[in-house]
Amino acid sequence: MTAHRIGFLIWPGTKALTLALAEEALRVAQRVHPDVTYELTFMQAEPSVEGTAWKLPGEPWGGRLEGCQKVFLVADEPPAPVASALAGALKQLVRAGCVIGGLSAGVYPLAQLGLLDGYRAAVHWRWQDDFAERFPKVIATSHLFDWDRDRLTACGGMSVLDLLLAVLARDHGAELAGAVSEELVVERIREGGERQRIPLQNRLGSSHPKLTQAVLLMEANIEEPLTTDEIAQHVCVSRRQLERIFKQYLNRVPSQYYLELRLNKARQMLMQTSKSIIQIGLSCGFSSGPHFSSAYRNFFGATPREDRNQRRSSSPFELSSVPAERG
After folding, report:
1. Backbone phi, then psi, for 267, in 5-degree steps?
2. What is the 3-state secondary structure of 35-89?
3. pLDDT at 48
């Protein structure tokens, strides 16, 4: 039987776990089913950085990518723009009919080249705002993974294994995918459309239903915050009871938790988008620029502008798309 060749194009900084999840699923498939044959090829998109914790497998790609039925771009942080030679090779690969995918931040180079325009792509929740702003033609989702025609994307972490199990099921049937998951002691095979965020009750460390309902209301009303009385009315408890629940489980009153939620959302937007400070403040429920700046400084110890500039200077690539603040 002819081997199905799968290529992994790897960027510096990729974690060993990300590659191991993908590789192990395919290796186990070959072990448990003798008729399954995969030929795995590892290529480095850029030379390995000296002094890193582990050496990337494979050698630098040699100018050609032909011969693979599937190619996955693998990165664990958004990489720098793709070099022109590699960009041309990837586009030629797609024109030749190769199925192409992005694992974790591997969606970034695909999107930079326009290869995800009009496609669904699973994007890790940490990069959702940044990715959506940079690549408006891509349908960014919060799914674990997406398989949209000939594009495969996984948001990162364990979703890489979920996607590879889906590949095995598509290529060789659900029985093989099930056998591989059993071998790897995977509790269940997750569907791609499942949401990637940790359940709210796990994040809160509590399963109190009224607390969960209240926080969900807060998260759904960031731009136009509700009052504590309105939240209490929606979850059918008294204001005093709601305050007691928050104090017991989160050690803060509802208004304080709500403010911290909005400020953390503002900081995420500040670091990941090019929106102005005033726009961000208004979209997070602050009535004016000074109100937003004062609340932000009291909580984070720096004004929004100072925080953005400091983060830009310490992480120049991550914030390269954020222009200097004017005025």
Report:
1. -65, -40
2. CCCEEEEEEECCCCCCCCCCCCCCEECCCCCCCCCEEEEEECCCCCCCCHHHHHH
3. 67
Cα 15 to chain center, whole Å? 15
Residue ranges, the chain, pLDDT below 50: 314-327
**Tokens, residue 237:** 């408890």
Q: Cα(140)–Cα(122) distance, rounded to whole angstroms?
A: 6
- Give helix 239-250 / helix 209-220 axis angle, nearest 10°: 100
Phi, psi of 152 (to 5 degrees): -120, 130
Please, which residues have CB within 8 angstroms of residue 313's CB and are 6 or more apart in sequence? none
Tens digit of each residue's pLDDT (9 = 90 or more) over 136-194: 999 999 899 999 999 999 999 899 999 999 999 998 888 889 899 999 988 778 888 88
> Phi, psi (5° rounding) for residue 206?
-150, 150
Angle between helices 304-314 and 289-300 (to 10 degrees): 60
* Complete DSSP assignment for 218-245: HHH-SSSPPPHHHHHHHTTS-HHHHHHH
